[in-house]
Amino acid sequence: EVVLRLDGVAKAFPNGVTALDGLDMEVRAGEFLSLLGPSGCGKSTALRLIAGLSEPTGGRIEGRPAGGAPSIGFVFQEPTLMPWATVFGNVHLPLRLQGIGRRQAEAAIMEALEMVGLGAFRDAYPRELSGGMKMRVSIARALVTKPALLLMDEPFAALDEITRFKLNNDLLAVWRQLKCTVVFVTHSVFESVFLSTRILVFRARPGRVAAEIGIDPALPRD
Ligand code: ADP
Ligand code: ADP
After folding, report:
1. Which of 28, 74, 168, 189, CA to CA, is 20 to 30 A from 158?
2. Is the ipTM of this complex over 0.95?
3. DSSP label at residue 207
């Protein structure tokens, strides 16, 4: 049931900043886990360590998928789309990197786009899309490989409140449909309570888990 475990994990950067020290946490299969805390408490650092984008300077991480991709999907705060490619082309990228051509990837790409409500925008370019739509493309791109673990780093922080609320609702629907494990970084108490089955509250300097909140997944949230 535990898919990933961090044991006394530390991350000290060369500039002397200790972002994390003695971080103990686990990720359980199928849960929607939020890492909640103020800016600078080490949430993104923890997520990057989980993704294998960074190495700990102390402690141990067990269960991290070798090589990172494609069993992990990562959604950054910035949608980071390729401006010269269409929506379809952007979502194709992770499959293209695996050597899967457009034709062969089409069904998976369209399925991911339908999931985020953008099926009709397959031929649009990023500049034609709103901020919320760009974020939807970014989520579709993370989902197109059907990752077991979806990591999201404050994905909606730059969006207006109404768009953010819509995306929260749609993300919940996607998570229920895919039954994947999500680790979601946020500084919004509302967002974490609305989305999660479990919340780890981080405290800063150096970052570690100060409290854990479990939310009955059977309770209606929307
Ligand atoms: P959060 O995601 O909770 O806002 P971060 O994990 O981004 O926090 O950062 C935690 C602390 O580590 C901050 O003080 C930040 O400035 C510092 N930090 C993060 N990444 C680096 C880095 N690559 N080099 C130096 N300091 C960093
Ligand atoms: P590694 O563990 O491989 O050394 P890091 O976790 O140090 O990798 O990540 C380096 C990344 O963090 C770089 O992309 C850099 O731009 C970014 N970064 C550098 N300084 C900071 C900072 N103070 N806060 C947040 N991110 C930072």
Report:
1. 28
2. no
3. B
Kind of pairing between the strands at 149-153 and 32-36: unpaired
Q: What is the pTM of this model?
A: 0.87
Q: From ligand 2's centre to the CA of 114, what distance in Å?
A: 34
Instruction: Write out residues with Cβ below 6 Å of ligand 2.
Output: 13, 48, 54-55
- Which amino acid does the sequence have at 108? A
For a pocket test of ligand 1, which of 6, 11, 13 has the largest count of ligand atoms closer than 8 A to its C-beta?
A: 13
The whole-number average pLDDT for the span 187-203 is 94
3-state secondary structure of 42: coil
DSSP secondary structure, 73-101, as one string: EEE-SS----TTS-HHHHHHHHHHTTT--
CB 67 within 8 A of CB 52: yes
Q: Which atom of ligand 2 is nearest to the CA of 14?
A: 7
Cβ–Cβ under 8 Å, residues 25 and 34: no
- pLDDT, one tens digit per residue, over 127-184 is 999 999 999 999 999 999 999 899 999 999 988 999 899 999 999 999 999 889 999 9
Q: Label residues 82-93 b or e (16+ Cβ within 10 Å = b).
A: eeeebbbbbbbb
